[in-house]
Amino acid sequence: MAKPRAERLLSADRLSFLIAFVPWLAARERSTVAEAARHFGVTEDLIRQTVLLVAMSGRPGEARWADPLPDEMFDIDWDAFDEHDELVLTHVLDLETAPRFSAREAAAVIAGLQYLAGLPESAGSARIAALQDKLSRGTAGTPVRVGAVSTGADPQRLARIREAAAAGHQLEFSYLNEQGQRERRTVDPLRVESADDNWYLRAWCHLRDAVRTFRLDRITDLDVTELPVTHTGDDVALSDDLFTPAGDELDVVVELPADALPLLGDFLIDAEFQELAGARVRATLRVAHVHGVKRLAARMPGIVTVIAPAEARDAVADWARAALQAYS
Amino acid sequence: MPSARPTIPVEDRLFSLILALLASRIGLGKSEIFETVRGYKEQHRPGEQNLSLDRMFERDKEILRELGVPVETFEPPDDPGNNQSSRYRIPRAAFELPADVSFTPDETGLLALAARVWRQGSMSAEARRALFKLDALGVGDPDPVIGYAPRLRPADVSFAALDAAISASRAVSFDYLRPGRAEATPRQVVPLALVLYDGRWHLYAVHEESGQRRTYLLRRIVGPVTERAVVEVPDGDHGAEALAGLTSLAESQRAELLVAVGSDAALRLGSRPTARWIDASHLDLGYVDAAILADELVGFGPEIRVIAPESLKAAVVERLQRVVATHG
Description:
The complex is a heterodimer.
Chain A: H1 2-26, E1 31-32, H2 33-40, H3 44-55, E2 75-76, H4 78-84, E3 86-87, E4 89-91, H5 103-115, H6 124-137, E5 147-149, H7 155-167, E6 169-176, E7 182-195, E8 198-205, E9 210-215, E10 219-228, E11 250-257, E12 272-276, E13 280-287, H8 290-299, E14 305-308, H9 310-325
Helix pairs in contact in A: 2-3, 5-6, 8-9
Chain B: H1 10-23, E1 28-29, H2 30-36, H3 51-66, E2 72-74, E3 87-89, H4 92-95, H5 105-116, H6 124-136, E4 147-149, H7 158-167, E5 170-176, E6 185-197, E7 200-207, E8 213-217, E9 221-230, H8 238-252, E10 254-259, H9 264-270, E11 275-277, E12 282-286, H10 290-299, E13 304-308, H11 310-327
Antiparallel strand pairs in B: 1-3, 2-3, 5-6, 5-9, 6-7, 7-8, 10-12, 10-13, 11-12
Helix pairs in contact in B: 5-6, 10-11
């Protein structure tokens, strides 16, 4: 049963693309394969295949058994297509208007909008509500409310970051690092990222002379300076991983039930695993500092046990003992 | 399965079906579809029962509906009650985006960002299709002042199964680990919505035995989620209702904490929507699940001390002792 399902998914995607692509092309006098591929974020091959399919498609002919007549078919400028990779629809049958969203598509977008309510671009909840309403009217059926999300984004900090990026000025803030030390940082903002409720600023850090990721909720006293930035999002390539290894990490070995692995979150990046008896796993995590691992292990009492190095194991025990003292 | 007949790709057949059903004002009967639409007519055997074509047509209708293409079934007035003579069409007004629904470039940019929030996980297919349709409007994203890469990535394995069950209006059963219990017990519910609150995914559902609406934490669902029968799901904005319920629960369940000034705990816990500072070091924090809050608080080690309630204090102390015992 696995195969038909995969095929169906793929064809569903291709069909969605088809019914979006045709009205887009019909609305322009001409385009090119390259432009269309860029606009939709798909490969040029897919554009060519799609154009060929459209050019051969039509509505059923008046005479039942016969093939459709030419005016019952889409047509393209074949010379322009074959010789110059140009796209010109010379005969449009139908699909001149973009299709409605499906209930699930609209639901996904609406939940995403709620999540982004804290962005300065969302300009407050009134705009989000108006957009949701418009989207609902453009949906076939009623959007299934699959998800509703509270936003973890802090509008004030995000607005300040956007202001600095728009002006091309450096940001200055006080940052509490994982070791619990507060440092003054001056950075060029590159990109704002998030993972569920956690929001991050990726920036060129002038203190470290490298790209660094900062948790928004550890940033305080955020100011836009008068200094122009030296790096922008266009000229610094950012990896997809939020935390780029700095090269001076520590290997920490932890043990936990295999079921609990997802709870390790970002620590799973670059980790190595060894299966143990009783559905347990030994994982070697690359961490920036023992302080990070002590918070992780304490958050999962009795589930995650730090095995090595002794320094990390002691750090966890000391952390918990220090906390217990307050209650004795 | 070798076949002498040329195979028409699924998306090709579905596209031809859309064109045929859109073009016909009076609708098409099954036999007309099987005889004239590409992908069907190649397999059609005149004078025979076309059971495989029947099945194919049923599946195609379902795929189209899922993709937001409304296929309408109606019985001709001169032959009511005979479903063999049912006719099918796609009403243009229900298929095309209404003329009064249009978006500015800023709005399209925000909607596209909202769809991209789901680029990983079970909602990513819907999000990708929604993006195609947004691109079809041809507005193009405005150049962002700063790049955003927001991401919702439900880590809980049950998310995809529950999401599918909600879309299909199916009841489900699963084993649920109640806070403070060691053994999971079975639950039978009608799922209504999935809600991200306070950084965690919750399921809002009707508990079948009591008929009451309850909230379940996805992290406490152990083992597989089993789909059961299709059921009647009550109308309403369940997501919003669930969020309101969780918010009022966090309003009524409060913890008083002593927090080290300027610590990580002060920043992270203090910036939560449910937090209120009593003075510079005393935090009044709302929560929905005491066991989960206790786990989190242990992660902050000596940076916090629980003052009230007693039960939370005991839970934190017990966890700290467990951490010491496993690392001492």
